[in-house]
Amino acid sequence: MKFLLPSALHSLALPLLLSLLPSTHATTTTTTDSAGSAIALIRNNLNLYSILQDTKNFAALDQVFTQDASPIGLAGPTTSYPNNLTGIQQFLASALANVTTLHYSDTQFVELGPAGDTATAVSYTQAVYFAEDALVSGQVATYYESFRDEFVLRGGRWLSRNKTLQIFAIVGNRSVT
Questions:
Q1: Beta-sheet strands, E only, within the chain
Q2: 105: how many CB neighbours lie within 10 A of its CB?
Q3: Maximum CA pair distance of the chain?
Q4: What is the model's pLDDT at position 8?
């Protein structure tokens, strides 16, 4: 269905509609072309992290993390935190060995550092874990979580050197994970 507005009404409607859009004058959301490109690349990094977990392609995590990355909160209270890329790869491969995951990321906020070679990002994710183990087959656990990343620009790539996890809630059978 197509709506046609008389030109006089159209000339009034467009400014009104534009005035309803959120303002982009805040310094944390205003970008230049290069800043906008950096933010897009960082958002791609955040999304790639989810995709690599869901596809169990842990070798490709070198596209997400620096070699000396130190995530905080990715391990449970009884395990030690990985302290480099290899540790992160091994930890995730072990932790996700008996589950299928589906990560859904929605809200992402990226703020570039003053020199343009660092950034911080906050992202929100729902991570659904589907059991593959025969004891809990058919069971599901959903994690509602956020990540805070510290990014650095290295060799033309935006990589996370620190990733902090905060879990807000877990719904479903926790024994799945």
A1: 99-112, 118-131, 140-154, 157-172
A2: 17
A3: 68
A4: 43
Return the SS3 of 74. coil
Range list of H helices, 22-139: 33-54, 85-95
Predicted model pTM: 0.76
- Tell me how far CA of residue 146 lies from CA of 8, 34, 163, in angstroms: 47, 27, 10
In sign, the C-alpha dihedral spanning 33, 35, 41, 43 is negative
Question: What tokens were used for 39?
Answer: 């933010």
Residue 155, number of CB atoms within 10 A of its CB: 5
Tokens found for residue 101: 């995951």
Q: What is the Rg, in whole angstroms, of the alpha carbon atoms belonging to the chain? A: 21
CA distance 108 to 75: 23
CB atoms within 10 A of CB 106: 8
d(CA 131, CA 89): 21
Write the pLDDT tens digit of every residue in 136-155.
677 899 999 999 999 999 98
* Beta partners for residue 65, in sequence order: 160
